[in-house]
Sequence to fold (553 residues):
Amino acid sequence: MSSMMRGTTDNGPLLPEPDEDGAPFWEFAARGELRVQACGLCRELRFPPRPCCPRCQSFDNEWQRMSGRGRIWSYVLPHPPLLPAYAARSPYNVVVVELAEAPRIRLVGNLVAAPGADIDSVDPEQLYIGAPVRVTFARLPGGFTVPRWLLGATS
Amino acid sequence: MATRSTTPAPPPARRGSPALKDATAIVGIGQTPFARRLEDSEKSLACRAILAALDDAGIPPSQVDAFASYTMEETDEVEIAKSIGAGDVTFFARTGFGGGASCATVAHLATAIATGQASVGVAWRSRKRGSGPRPWRNTRTQLPTPAQWSRPYGLIRPVDEIAMLARRYMHEYGATRDHFFNVARACRRHAARNPAAVMHGRPLTRETYMTSRWISEPLCLYDNCLETDGALACVLVSADRARDCRRSPVYVHSAAQGLPAQHHGMVNYWNGDPLTGPSWTAARQLWKTADFGPADIDVAQIYDAFTPLIPLSLEGYGFCGRGEGAAFTEDGALERGGRLPLNTGGGGLSEAYVHGFNLITEGVRQLRGTSTAQVPGASTCLVTAGEGVPTSALLLRS
Ligand SMILES: [Zn+2]
Fold:
């Protein structure tokens, strides 16, 4: 299965294991760009990425750059039992962010206090549904770059 | 010379009545004990539950010719058939998506029997989820496609994925933890009457619930189902044959699966309205072919891996309007004597969590009149599979 996650040998955080459709997202993230797949014909944004457009069935696609702004749609604070790397940071936050350009495009992620800060760096009291956020990028120990989110609409 | 048509005349159309409706019945149910840890293997537990169900039906194993289970079931049809002494098997089917498969197993058998592909069907689920591994701990084999978009961020367990929907549901509709507690308490009170329930004799107070540890805020320990070893099974035959069986038949009145447009598995955050889950899709099909509606349901068995699934499902299956599921749980509505008693054996929260199969067998008991929390005169029962995942549901009647 192409989309299985792999564990790291040192019990670190799980790394994305992209499938063929998802690979460009991660390649753009590594360059510090938040891009979402769109239909090359009718331009409809879609997520997660897939081979063809559910609206017009075209196989043409393009990756549109997003502003990186959005709002918190919901969030959770996981507590043990968890995998070791996550238990060590619990309670950390996981947020779902709806993108400003397309509210139906929602990305799972983590809110952090500063670029490069850990997933437990934000006081949970600061989290609320509707909070404006903006994207940043973090390079994980395994070399993967993932989007993270900072509170506030402007940098 | 007389010409003869080579095209046989079509059979007379069944008027307004789908071929499935009341064409088959559940005539046997069986189960093992439920516990955090059982010694038997999953295969052995499966055989015990299936043989108990056949004994309940009064049908010899050699007459079984159809099987249905979950893709997550570890023991396949080959092992089961040769162990219990089944005859030649002419139909077998598996359904995916974990707890979404429960009612689909019965639906597939009903379809097979109603269309003449088989005559005696066995559906089963055996699981050592109590003493065995937690699936989310396995970092190599995870739910397909969506995993790369959620797990690296620490959204790892089913409870995390549902807690995300729960928080949004609380925000949009004013649901509170007390509403989730109403669900947990109803199941626990029903378990108190059921000696087979893991939580039999262990009442749950509001204070215990409110002060318990978090698992994934906003969900606490008691919002989560049990972790159970156990197995269950049921036996299906045609309605004609059911009349000669030793138990009163429980008819499969309607059945449906549900995979909504643009749905994405349990991490269902990427469609227009993530709070409208697969139950809405299954419900539309279920009621469309039924002779009765939500107001006519005497008792319900609704999949309860997590408490928020109950208000979401109550809305999906049409017992109340959008956003009204939480308020529906008030005033003991879900308890014996309430307006919709549900999970009367204790459900996944307080009897056993075996991917929802105990909800099917409890539905059968209610319609036989043999539940430990019997709803007087119950003649219709809704049974549902997991909400959030691609799902399935049954309408049963006596
Ligand atoms: Zn298109």
Q: What stands out?
A: DSSP finds two helices and seven strands in chain A.
